[in-house]
Specification:
CATH topology of the largest domain: Umud Fragment, subunit A
Strand content: 25-35%
Distance between the termini: 122 Å
Helix content: 10-25%
Number of strands: 15
Number of helices: 2
CATH architecture of the largest domain: Ribbon
Amino acid sequence: MPLRRCLGAASDPAQIGRSRRMNQSKKARRDRPASTVAQGSGMGAGLGETVRTVVYALLIAVVVRTFAIEPFNIPSGSMIPTLLVGDYLFVAKPSYGYSHFSFPFSPDLFSGRIPDVLPHRGDVAVFRNTRDTTVDYIKRIVGLPGDHIQERDGQLYVNGVLVPRTDEGDYVAIDEQGRQLAGRLYTEALPGSGGRGPVRHQILSMTSEGFANNTPEYVVPAGYFFAMGDNRDDSADSRFMDDLGYVPMENLIGKAEMIFFSIDSTHPAWQFWQWPMEIRWGRLGHWVH
């Protein structure tokens, strides 16, 4: 009887080849998804890290702006010559404590200030407008609660005493509308408060006539302060009771400290080659006083 050779599956050369190709194909299929998943996980982790970094940076910025310092820019000429149109400055938020105006969107969480720190006469302060509390103002504080404030013939009186000033000569400034403001430059010495000495600062005066230069005597009520612009004849301030009037202490935002940037935008914005010449380099790092 003839013998038949029984070949196992592995002994067939064609079948062996097919088996190897199938094994390689299965291995490739197993490897591909693993590689794809690994790449996707890496991209997702990188994106998540970027999002976390951005969120942390925004939170830090909000905390710093709320509790430490906040940048502001000067859009008007009411504080010339101390502050010019185009100045950018840092305002110290802890100087007078915190009110609900210190926080983003001014949530009505509490009234008053925490802690309640009285400003000093002569401080240049940022505060909320009394008629529209969404608008920030910056002026010099010349009167504190109980003070008597008056302008006579263009000169300032505090508690019945003339505030001394020194004539520094002619001065020409440019306001936010591009108009020339020609007047006299003076160095004024406001009486200090809280045991401090006189606060010497510059003012601009263009006339000694008109209501703003010949006012009634104002008596600052408790919980308020009296603010004036250093540009005495181009400032809507506490002399006008139907406009700003007395300012509640609660409206204070902070004390102006330092000019970190200043630009005189005399050319169109698209003329970028003029930008370096428009920067007021000498005002950078200038302390406000």
